[in-house]
Specification:
With about 425 residues, this protein is an alpha/beta fold. Helices cover about 30% and strands about 10% of the residues. The termini are far apart.
């Protein structure tokens, strides 16, 4: 028994003395999870009592010391080196290119945008025309070739020429700006005032007042026509108060009639800023269809979205003016078929084989032409649809000569049924076989 215990102890001591091979968690020598044993192997007492453990959550460095991970702040990822070689040299300058080096294919450049003829449009009127001009400038913000010249005056109109004389100021504007292409007018929101002439004072919307007011509209359009400029007259929108709305509606009727008579263009915006019943509304759909606030708290002017919608309807006519100005551009020069005129073309252009001229057919004579059909009459013979049929001699048909009429007389007068025909449903005769 003692000898057996001694043999077990000897074997255990032998295993303790022989060093154990290193164990790796991964084959990658660069892994932080590799556990390396320091030089000299392991202590035999470590096999009996265990190895001293490192702190919880710590790992071992390459030298066997404990390594702990601490939270780091998030930082922007390190920029990876670009795979495309930099065109700059070591000294920061562009090195000279080798003419013998092979040329790499480059992305073809976009075709050049055709030039646009500059278009200049004047926008004149009262405070509502200021918002109209702002909306138009927003529409054409990305097309600098179309510009707008603003000539506006708050609280002005066609009635009080002693406060602001619009015919005089429009003449001055057109004379000072000779490159204008059109005139957009929006005025009248302050014209609910009396008009004076040699006969006295006339109330708004009276017969004499309408006559004098129409003359002032005609005078303003005639000034633009004298400079050979098209006129776009924008009507007034609906207003919040009922009486103001009725007056503005009457003004729009005068604008429409006088502008149409002068051959100018009238833009109606009444329904665009009215509700379904035609009344004043504060909110409504914008140009994108979204429900937004269109009018300000005073019940007269527009918000930014309302000004953009106002300009949208006027822009429909302005687009025609811009397009007509672009049509006057000279056509682009036709490409030459000279090989030297086309870059990269060294061989002559192959157009195709020249086909021989085909023989022309000889003209046909009058005798060879097909006969002309006789003209069809404008109307045919008159047929009376309610007349009874006639016999060959023109006499009325005898009802007794028609078998159907005789059978009907026997049925409805004498009450005798018609004779049954063999095979018909009313044939009840039985023939024994």
């Amino acid at each position: 028994m003692f000898a057996r215990v001694l043999a077990i102890i000897t074997c255990a001591l032998t295993l303790l003395v022989v060093p154990a091979p290193e164990s790796h968690a991964q084959n990658d020598s660069s892994s932080v999870y590799i556990q390396r044993v320091p030089a000299g192997g392991r202590n035999p007492f470590e096999w009996l009592f265990g190895r001293q453990r490192s702190q919880p959550g710590a790992t071992l460095n390459r030298d066997g010391s404990a390594r702990s991970y601490k939270a780091r702040r998030k930082s922007s990822p390190t920029a990876r080196p670009s795979l495309t070689p930099s065109p700059l040299g070591p000294d920061g300058t562009v090195p000279p290119t080798d003419p013998n080096a092979p040329q790499t294919a480059e992305t073809p450049a976009a075709p050049p945008v055709p030039p646009m003829t500059p278009v200049q449009i004047a926008v004149v009127g009262d405070s509502l025309s200021v918002l109209l001009a702002q909306g138009l400038q927003e529409i054409y913000a990305e097309r600098p070739a179309v510009t707008f010249v603003r000539k506006n005056r708050d609280s002005s109109g066609l009635v009080r020429d002693d406060y602001y004389d619009w015919p005089k100021n429009l003449k001055d504007l057109l004379s000072a700006t000779p490159n204008l292409d059109a005139v957009v007018i929006m005025v009248g929101s302050n014209d609910r005032q009396q008009l004076r002439d040699e006969a006295g004072v006339h109330e708004p919307r009276s017969e004499r007042w309408n006559e004098l007011y129409a003359r002032r509209i005609d005078a303003l359009i005639a000034i633009a026509r004298d400079h050979k400029l098209p006129v776009v007259w924008v009507g007034l929108p609906t207003m919040r108060t009922e009486r103001y709305r009725a007056d503005v509606l009457a003004f729009n009727d005068i604008y429409r009639r006088r502008v149409s008579a002068a051959g100018a263009t009238y833009v109606d915006i009444w329904e665009a800023f009215s509700g379904e019943d035609g009344d004043y509304v504060v909110t409504g759909p914008d140009v994108g269809g979204e429900l937004v606030r269109l009018r300000t708290s005073d019940g007269v002017h527009f918000t930014k979205a309302g000004a953009r919608k106002l300009a949208f309807f006027a822009d429909k006519e302005i687009q025609k003016i811009v397009a007509s100005k672009q049509e006057k551009l000279p056509p682009p020069a036709a490409a030459s078929l000279d090989p030297g005129a086309l870059p990269g073309l060294t061989a002559p252009i192959f157009i195709g084989p020249v086909l021989p001229a085909l023989p022309q057919p000889e003209p046909l004579t009058i005798e060879q032409l097909p006969p002309v059909p006789a003209p069809r009459p404008l109307q045919g013979p008159v047929l009376v649809l309610t007349a009874p049929p006639n016999a060959a001699g023109g006499q009325l048909l005898n009802p007794n000569s028609i078998g159907i009429a005789k059978d009907a007389a026997n049925v409805f007068i004498t009450g005798r049924p018609p004779a049954a025909k063999p095979g018909r449903a009313d044939d009840f005769t039985f023939t024994p076989q």
